[in-house]
Amino acid sequence: MGFSLEQFSEVLKTRDAAGQPYVLIGGQAVNYWAERYLPIEPQLKPLQPFTSEDIDFKGSREDVQRIAGQLKLTPAYPHKVEMTTLAGIIPYQIGGLKSNIEVVRRIPGVSGSV
User: Fold this and answer.
1) pTM of the complete model
2) Secondary structure (3-state) at 86
3) 43 and 52 in contact (C-beta within 8 Å)?
4) pLDDT tens-place string over residues 39-71
5) C-alpha distances in Å from residue 75, one per residue of 47, 70, 83, 95, 101
C-alpha cells in the first residue's frame, strides 16, 4: 500500500533542533517534485498516483529521537554493530495502516552535508 505525501502532513510539521524542517529524501521526495512539475510536464500524469510505502529523512540518531518525541511515538534503532546508514525507524500509522518514518545518516553517492 502506498501513501501520498499529503498523508504524512503531521510528520512534515516536525522540526529539527534549529526549528527547520527535515530534509526529505527517497520516494516521497520524488513524489514532491512529480506533483510540483505535473502542471507543466503532462507526461507525468499516467504515473499517478504518486505514492510510497514510507517517508524518509536525512538525519541522525538524535533526529530520530526528536521526531519520535514530537509525534509521541517510540523509535527503533539498528544494532550498533550493524553496518547501515539507517539512523532509526519510527513506526507510523495512517488510517490504521502501517508505515514507517525512516531517518538515514548518509545518502550513498552524495558527498558533503545536506
Assistant:
1) 0.91
2) strand
3) no
4) 999 999 999 999 999 999 999 999 999 999 999
5) 33, 12, 19, 19, 9
Q: What is the dihedral of CA 43, 2, 114, 81, to 10 degrees?
A: -140
Tens digit of each residue's pLDDT (9 = 90 or more) over 22-41? 999 999 999 999 999 999 99
Phi and psi at 37, nearest 5°, equal -95, -5
Specify which residues 104 forms β-bridges with. 58, 86
Q: What's the longest Cα–Cα distance across the chain?
A: 47
C-alpha cell belonging to residue 83: 553496518
CB burial of 68-106 (b: ≥16 within 10 Å; e: otherwise) equals beebeeebeeeeeeeeeebbbbbebeeeeeebebbbbee
| Residues 19, 46 contacting (CB under 8 angstroms) | no
